[in-house]
Design goal:
The structure holds 2 protein chains of 2 kinds.
Chain A: H1 19-22, H2 28-37, H3 40-50, H4 54-61, H5 72-94, E1 113-116
Helix pairs in contact in A: 3-5
Chain B: E1 24-26, H1 33-44, E2 49-53, E3 62-68, E4 73-79, E5 85-89, E6 104-106, E7 109-111, E8 118-120, E9 125-127, E10 146-152, E11 155-159, H2 168-179, E12 189-197, H3 201-207, H4 214-217, E13 236-241, E14 244-250, H5 260-269, E15 301-308, E16 312-316, E17 320-330, E18 333-342, H6 349-381, E19 387-389, H7 395-408
Antiparallel strand pairs in B: 1-19, 2-11, 3-4, 3-6, 4-5, 5-10, 7-8, 8-9, 10-11, 12-18, 13-14, 14-15, 15-16, 16-17, 17-18
């Protein structure tokens, strides 16, 4: 497709065949949907190609600062690798793309938010009510 | 090791050990609109409901909005300038518009988008544009409608009764005393999942109160629990604190991670079968080291589940805990919310991968329960069965359904 956009970092070019399916996905929910939409043969091919590269992928990515955005090629590699968090469930756990017993095209509405809650700096006292607000 | 050589077998808890009846119950309690209407008024409007963590409103002016689905109420939970956490109906005192649209934020003043009446973080009315047109209104005497709020171990609870029959402390009783010191506040990183499910809230709650189904429904997704010694996962050290309860679930000591990605995640991140990422905290900081969590020292500890009646469960692992809530939205609709709290956020790309893998695996387990309990509900509505059987090993179903019935019959504890 777009050659520049789909460029993986040097040394990871062998994963290019999976960029179209996994390279654009940002969210947990998108990855879950993609896993269910692909035939098992595609999931297995992805699994067989990416799994042996996991140590090298993260050894490479974690040379970059975690608190800054990754450069485009590295960000693409990370998105592709994250696909394996879903594909591994299909390949290693269930032996099929979807969760068993769920109907075909099962789409559980899932929302994932990640945030850091701050420590509570103020007194813990809780009074149910206040003067004046009634 | 078989059952007879398990030295801990005496701590397995069956219904008869706790004097629990309710071996057979009517199936229509899951499908009847009348039962649901009674549950709304006699349970959800009367008991204390857990709605969040105090740390979600850390600083003065911080607020969160939470929907109390069975009551169709939007609650604003806000920390005032004085540091006190209060709760109000998200309803303008003028003509009842929804006041706040954002689900969370920080503000000194809530301004109604309709006519700009404004309210402070203590709920008091601060300003009325054209106040001279409202001679009947004394600004200093009106405000947002308060909701009873209190805090236990960092969790914010609300109560919608006109006058609560019990304080939160009374409601939680010895259960609250025993588990009040678990250091939940040390866990600051949150991963939240929400699922809308076509089932009755009790179908889903039932699935979280017995682990008899684990070797069957979750045969592939949870192989790390059921062991040769305890193949049907009879609970160890199950405790009843009416209306609440708790139990311990063991892990299978013979299980070894299979699957190359799972092995990679475990080896590279220190994640383990207890669904945690090893955060390097010393053993004394593990949640399972808290005296109340595993007082008998049951080996192969997997988790303790605290069930806060009626719709909340706290899953206490070693290095994380999970708050699961089954919010009824109707007789056949549930909003299921799972909040996983970790001590700290991922600090590397590898850890982000590990966290996503753990989250996907947890979601798939829950999805099996979701699939089963929604098909159960569809099937139940056909009238195909008239009664349910709760086994000796399903003692917490017996207990919880006895408690539900007690509230419906106006003979609740307290």
């Amino acid at each position: 497709v777009n050659g520049r956009k789909s460029a993986l970092p040097g040394g990871f070019e062998d994963l290019a065949p999976f960029v179209a399916e996994w390279g654009e996905l940002e969210s947990f929910e998108e990855r879950y949907r993609r896993r269910q939409s692909l035939p098992m043969a595609r999931l297995s091919a992805f699994y067989d190609a990416v799994t042996p590269r996991l140590p090298a992928i993260f050894e490479y990515l974690d040379r970059f600062a975690f608190d800054e955005p990754l450069p485009p090629a590295e960000a693409l590699l990370f998105r592709v690798a994250m696909g394996l968090t879903e594909v591994a469930q299909a390949v290693e756990v269930f032996g099929q793309p979807a969760v068993p017993h769920a109907p075909l095209d099962h789409c559980v509405p899932v929302r994932v938010t990640t945030r850091v809650c701050q420590a509570v700096p103020v007194p813990r006292a809780a009074k149910p009510f206040l003067g004046g607000a009634r | 090791m078989n059952q007879t050589t398990d030295p801990w077998a005496k701590h397995r808890t069956l219904a008869r050990d706790r004097g629990l009846g309710s071996a057979v119950v009517d199936a229509d309690r899951y499908t009847s609109a009348d039962v649901y209407a009674a549950e709304r008024e006699k349970i959800f409007r009367r008991v204390w409901l857990l709605v969040g963590r105090e740390s979600e409103v850390s600083n003065p002016g911080d607020f969160i909005k939470r929907e109390i689905y069975p009551l169709e109420v939007e609650a604003l939970i806000v920390r005032g300038k004085d540091g006190v956490v209060r709760a109000f109906h998200n309803t303008c005192a003028h003509r009842g518009s929804a006041l706040v649209e954002a689900s969370e934020g920080t503000t000194n003043l809530f301004v109604c988008p309709y006519h700009a009446w404004s309210f402070g973080t203590d709920g008091g009315c601060k300003a009325i544009p054209g106040a001279e047109y409202f001679p009947q209104v004394d600004k200093d005497k009106i405000g947002l409608t308060p909701i009873h709020a209190d805090i236990w171990n960092g969790f914010v609870f609300l109560n919608f009764d006109e006058t609560p029959r019990q304080t939160l402390r009374e409601y939680l009783g010895d259960f609250g005393e025993l588990y009040g010191e678990i250091p939940f506040g040390d866990f600051r990183h949150l991963v939240e999942m929400t699922m809308d499910i076509d089932t009755n809230w009790k179908c889903l709650l039932d699935a979280s109160l017995e682990s008899y189904h684990v070797p069957f429904l979750h045969r592939k997704s949870l192989p790390m629990i059921s062991s040769t010694a305890n193949p049907l996962n009879v609970y160890y050290d199950a405790q009843l604190w009416p209306p609440h309860s708790s139990f311990i679930l063991q892990s299978n000591p013979d299980w070894v991670p299979n699957g190359r990605v799972l092995q990679f995640v475990y080896a590279a991140t220190g994640a383990n079968m207890r669904r945690t990422l090893d955060d390097g905290a010393p053993p004394s900081a593990k949640l399972s080291s808290a005296e109340a969590v595993n007082p008998l020292g049951i080996p192969n500890f997997f988790l303790r589940v605290l069930t806060v009646f009626p719709l909340t469960q706290l899953y206490v692992f070693d290095d994380s805990y999970n708050v699961q809530q089954v919010w009824p939205m109707g007789v056949g609709k549930v909003r299921f919310v799972s909040r996983f709290y970790f001590r700290s956020p991922p600090a590397s790309y590898l850890e982000r991968f590990g966290e996503a893998h753990l989250t996907a695996s947890g979601r798939d387990v829950l999805s099996e329960d979701v699939a089963m309990t929604s098909s159960q509900f569809r099937s139940l509505r056909s009238g195909g069965v008239k009664r349910f059987y709760f086994g000796e090993n399903e003692l917490l179903l017996r207990h919880t359904h006895e408690m539900i019935q007690a509230y419906l019959d106006d003979r609740a504890p307290g």
